[in-house]
């Protein structure tokens, strides 16, 4: 039986992990808002994403150099993290932004935030079991809250291609999140984020060139949002990996349901979009689910922190 100091240490790590994932959601919410602005301005989606991830990787490399942490991944983990970036995050991001071409942001966000359910199913299929009652209640609250936020925010319209792309993005992100929980063991979180960003950038740049959609951003109206998404992406990747170490994939996916709330708040501030009672109610459900998930015990001890 754990002593009180040990229980307090684990609880502190859980709350820290939840805080990091909430910061991840805020930054990814900013990416959605800025990404919508820059792609609506005419910059192709593959080019936008390639620049976003390449600049994020450069920012992370600079931070690693300044604080004198190794840029290299731990032995045996580099190629696995690169696969997460090329076959995981680059595909997820591309599918999500292409889905936005086939439906409203509310509809695509609603479909994307089925991913906590996918993460739970992956956990079951890989032998880790389903979430317990408390975690299951947190999952229901988070998904219901996310649904309420997007359903009451703006028009919910999407065609068949949009549904397929959004669900494909959700499934890909679920695989990426579950894979990261397994792969990222000894590589520090900043280096892991840099490797994912760099490999995603390489994959997207290759696709942009091969498809003939490669182009440079033009003017501050495009470079500004691109740089902003790069900064947010670098910070979000670090916070996601650091939080994932403390919470595990299932709890991280539940706490990350704060992203629609963050996106709605940022859209209200910067795009002048109205926040209604439904968004507030959905936000309360999301926060309840996030807090519950952060306090629910993991089935296995959290991994030791890695700088």
Give a quick set of tags describing it.
disordered C terminus; 307 residues
Derived structural class: mainly alpha
Number of strands: 0
Helix count from the secondary structure assignment: 11
- Mean model confidence by pLDDT: 78
Oligomer: single chain
Strand % is under 5%
- What is the C-alpha radius of gyration, as a whole number of Å? 19 Å
State the major sheet. Answer: none
- Which stretches are low in confidence, meaning pLDDT under 50 for 5 or more residues running? 298-307
List SSEs in N-to-C order: HHHHHHHHHHH
Report how far the terminal alpha carbons are from each other.
Answer: 28 Å
User: Percent range for helical residues?
Assistant: over 70%
Which shape, going by the Cα principal axes?
globular
Structure, briefly:
The chain is mainly alpha-helical. The protein has helices spanning 4-40, 45-67, 78-99, 105-112, 115-125, 133-153, 160-183, 189-211, 220-255, 258-270, 277-295. Helix 2 crosses helix 9 (220-255).
């Amino acid at each position: 039986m754990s002593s009180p100091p040990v229980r307090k240490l684990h609880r502190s790590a859980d709350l820290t992990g939840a805080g990091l994932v909430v910061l991840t959601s805020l930054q990814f919410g900013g990416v959605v808002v800025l990404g919508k602005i820059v792609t609506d301005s005419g910059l192709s989606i593959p080019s936008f994403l390639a620049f976003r991830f390449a600049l994020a990787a450069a920012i992370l490399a600079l931070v690693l150099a300044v604080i004198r942490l190794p840029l290299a991944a731990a032995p045996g983990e580099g190629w696995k993290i690169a696969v997460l970036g090329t076959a995981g995050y680059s595909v997820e991001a591309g599918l999500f932004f292409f889905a936005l071409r086939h439906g409203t942001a509310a509809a695509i966000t609603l479909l994307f935030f089925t991913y906590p359910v996918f993460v739970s199913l992956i956990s079951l299929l890989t032998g880790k079991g389903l979430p317990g009652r408390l975690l299951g209640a947190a999952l229901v609250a988070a998904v219901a809250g996310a649904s309420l936020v997007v359903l009451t925010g703006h028009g919910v319209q999407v065609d068949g291609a949009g549904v397929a792309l959004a669900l494909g993005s959700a499934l890909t992100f679920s695989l990426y999140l579950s894979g990261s929980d397994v792969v990222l063991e000894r590589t520090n979180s900043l280096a892991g984020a840099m490797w994912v960003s760099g490999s995603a950038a390489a994959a997207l740049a290759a696709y942009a060139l091969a498809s003939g959609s490669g182009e440079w951003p033009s003017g501050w109206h495009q470079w500004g949002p691109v740089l902003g998404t790069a900064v947010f992406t670098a910070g979000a990747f670090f916070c996601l990996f650091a939080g994932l170490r403390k919470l595990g994939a299932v709890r991280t996916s539940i706490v990350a349901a704060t992203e629609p709330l963050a996106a709605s708040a940022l859209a209200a501030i910067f795009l002048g979009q109205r926040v209604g009672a439904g968004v507030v109610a959905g936000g309360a459900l999301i926060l309840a689910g996030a807090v519950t998930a952060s306090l629910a015990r993991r089935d296995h001890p959290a991994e030791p922190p890695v700088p």
